# Entry
Amino acid sequence: MVPIVVRADGGRPLYRQLYDALRAAILDGRLARGHRLPSTRHLAVQLGVSRNTVLGAFDQLLAEGYLEGRVGSGTRVALALPDEAKHAAASGPTAAALAARSGRRGPSRRGLLLAATPVSVARRLPDRPFRAGVPDLAAFPFDVWSRLWARRWRRPPHALLDYADPAGYLPLREAIAGYLAHARAVRCEPQQVLIVSGSQQALDVAARVLLDPSDQVWVEDPGYGGARGAFIAAGAQVVPVPVTSAGLDVEAGRALAPAARLAYVTPSHQFPLGVAMPLGRRLALLEWARGADAWIVEDDYDSEYRYANRPLAALQGLDDDGRVVYVGSFSKVLFPGLRLGYLVVPKDLVAACAAARALVDRHPPTLDQVVLADFIAEHHFERHLHRMRALYAERQAALVAAAQQHLAGLLEVPPADTGMHLVGWLPGGVPGDGSDRRAAECAWAAGVEVQPLAAYTWGTPVRPGLVLGYAAVGPDDIRQGVHHLAQALGSRPMPRRRRGAC
# Structure
């Protein structure tokens, strides 16, 4: 038998502690299939508990299919584990189990924590409506991009094939600085722009430069899991701060961690709730940062797509104290496979961020940067954004109309001024009841991919809802997807019924 400890002061019934320990040992392979367990009497004496405690744990494991046999006449680990255990075992032993078998020390505590922290909600294949965060790749001007690429690749100067500046291709940095000045009211010089491999690397670089181990960091709750992962990787202590209808609650952050070192926000289009932070709260956030001698990381991931008036001005443009680090990406406005984004940092951070960028992967691909610089300089970028705003506005309207027609009473899907996704609210749900997770599973079974708001929450549960991306879905597929979603939600189980039954 594997070592098992049950404690009277463990906070849970003894039989439940024994059940959890045995089930975990079966799932990670420490108790092999077919292994015979000690008798209930012998195990009770060994653990110092009553025989009824052991019988209760064995009965539960027998009922669920983890054990086989009859209590009193020999009990073994089941040869064929139930579906849930089979899926867990398919991924192999845990890192700790592998390390124990090999005699090597396993990952650090931070490594184990990182392994359990999703960067983003995992994509499931094949593509289905309504996957969030993906642009319409079919609408990208490939002919223009191919022509620019061929022109540069035909006779590239040797300088473009050699090692390059870790901060990025200067003409691209100049083009981005010019674009941000007139489109987002960002105040910066080209030297403050650093090219990175997408917004995730931007967050990683910012965390490496700005944080020491154990520093506290405010993160939006619900919010982007990739930001949380970047801060955990830096050894920081993540503090979930609630999001209200006006974005991150600054006063709640002050109460939870007044001396935090950094705050991560998506003020122009909060992810995933979609709210915008008004001027008063932006100024309050800047005031807190000034008083706490803290940094603010502003992630402006998709605010180019604003359908009412011009895009909101960036928080960075209000910063007179050099405390805001601005993060942008081309994944949502061009295509994710390009893997190019940017950081805009205060002048006194440029050298440190460039060095951290160089240590990660030396520098971003030069030719991709050159082509993108040409794409922006020759005004193809602005024309593409204009087309996509019109296209996505039509698709959002189609989704809202279809939802009003087919999802009434099942899912409330209000329109939004910005972005590439909407949040649908489940009626009658109680925060933390798991109804949005069950609804998402039923939707997947019906051919639709949505994500529960619970997947983006790690502090206080929020009202159950579903995230529906519409940017990559054509009008016909939107209507068909809503029809399938209505069928799924109409047949989903009530909260007290077995999870997974649709």
